[in-house]
Amino acid sequence: MYTKFIDKIIRLPEEVKFIINNLESKGFEAFAVGGCIRDILIEKTPTDWDITTNAKPDEVKFLFEELGYKVIETGIKHGTVAILVNKNQYEVTTYRIEKEYLDNRHPSEVFFTNVLKEDLLRRDFTINAMAYNENKGLIDYFQGLTHLEERRIKTVGDAEDRFREDSLRILRAIRFSTTLKYSIDKDVEEGIRHTCKLLLNISKERVRDEFIKVLLSDTPSYGIKKLCDLGAMEFIIPQLSKISVLSSEGISKEAAYKSLEILDQSEASLTLRLSVLIYIILYFSSYDPNLGKYVEYNTNVADLMVKHILQTLKFDNVTISRVALLLGNCHIDFKMDSIVSVKSFISRVGIDNFEEMVSLIFTTLKIGTWNRVSYDEMIELENHYYEIIEGKEPIYIKDLLVNGNDLISLGIPKGKILGDILKYLLTQVMENKYNNTKEILIELAKKYCNFIGFPL
Q: What InterPro entries has UniProt attached to this entry (predicted)?
C-alpha cells in the first residue's frame, strides 16, 4: 500500500527540512520521527513534527542560535530543545537510551547515543517508531509500515516491559486502537491485563486526558468496552468497570454494552458524552435483583456520582458543574402545557446548555424506561423553546424591567424578602410577558408585600 510511494506520500514541511538540512550540513544525522510519520503515512495532517538527531542538545542550541534562531531549553536534561522557526516551535531531541523506570512513567536516567536504532527501541509502538528524511528515506526497524498496512497495534519489543516502563502506554494502546480503528495484538492485550493496575501510579490528569481522547473519538463505545474487557477501567472509572461483569436476572453485560453504543451517535461534546456515560452507569447500577426492576432515578445520587467520578479524574469545576446540571435536570416532571414550568426549566438549565440538555434527554429515552417524558413531549418542549427565544420573552430575573435597587427604593430591605419578590415578579412575567413594565411590576411588588404582611 505504502512501500512503492514513500517519497511521494511523505512531504516534510519546509521548516522541518530546514532544521534537518542544517544539522546534516554540520555532519550530524537528523530525521522526522514518531507520530508525525505515522500520521502522514495514513493521510492525516500531523499536529506537530518531532525531529531526532545524534547532535547533543548544546550542539543543536549553538548551531541554530548562530543562525539567529531562538532556541528554548524545553527538556534539555532529557535531550530536548525547541527551535522557533516562522513562529512555529519544533522539538529536536538527541538520540537517547533510557534506563530503568522507577515510577512506571519516567526513566531514572537518560544516556545519549549516536545510534538511531537504539533511540527507536525505547518507543512505545511500532507504528510510532519510524523515522524519515529525504536523503535516507524511511527508517523502519520494527515493521511499523507493515503494521500500519495491517492496521495493528504492536509494541516495540515485549509488551509487558513497555507497559511497566511507562504505564500510560496502556491507555495510549487503547486510544490508538479506538481512534485509528486498529486491532490490538493478543500479546499486547495480555500485557495490558497483567499490568493495568500500574495505572494507579500515573497522575489522574494524564489518565483523564487519554480517556477524553477515547470518549471524543468516532467510536467511544469500542474504546470503553476495550478498557473494561482488559481490566483497565477499574483504575479509571471503577463504577463503569462493573457493567462488564453484570449477569443478574433482568440485566446483562450485553445490554449494558449495547447502551454504550449510544455514545457513538451523540455529538462529540465532552460534557454531553460524560453526561450520557454517567447516566448509563446510574441506570445499570440502579437495578435491584430482589425487586426485579430499576429503582427510581435520584438526582442526589446522580450529583454525588458526577462529583466523585469527575473530581477523582481532576476535571475542572466548570465541566463538573455543567455535567451535574445536565444530569440534575434530565428527568422532566412537568406538563408541556404549563408555560411557566417550561420557562422555569429553560431558566434553570440556561440557554447556553439547553441544546445539550435536549440531546441528553433524547439519549436517555434510548437507554431504558427510566425517563417518563415522551418523544412527542420533547418535540413540544423544543418548539416552546424556539418560540420563547425568538420572542425574546423574559426567563431570567435580569430580564425584568425592575431591579433590586428599584425595589429597595420602595422600602423593601435587602435579603430574603427582596429575593422572594424578584422571583415572584419573574413568575408573573413568565405567565404574561406584558406584565414586564416598570409600572406594573412595582404595583405587583406592592401587592405581594401586602399579601405577606409587609405593607409599604
A: Bact_CCA-adding_enz_type3_sf, CCA-adding_enz_C, NT_sf, PolA_pol_head_dom, PolyA_RNA-bd
* Nearest-angstrom CA–CA distance, 248 and 372: 24
Q: Give the Cβ contact number of residue 128 at 10 Å.
A: 21
Compute CA distances 70 → 58, 62, 273, whole Å.
13, 10, 42
Ramachandran quadrant class, 415 (left: phi over 0; alpha: psi -120 to 50; beta: rest) = left
Residue 335 has which C-alpha cell?
406538563
> 24 with 128, same domain?
yes
Q: What is the DSSP string of 287-345?
A: EETTTTEEPPP-HHHHHHHHHHHHHHTT--HHHHHHHHHHHHSSS--S-TT-HHHHHHH
Helix (H, G, I), strand (E, B) or coil at 77: helix
Does residue 40 fall inside a structural domain?
yes
Which pTM does this prediction carry? Answer: 0.89
- Going by their DSSP bridges, the two strands 50-53 and 137-139 should be labelled as unpaired
Same domain? For 184 and 64 the reply is no
Residues of the chain with pLDDT under 70: 1-5, 7-8, 99-108, 244-251, 289, 292
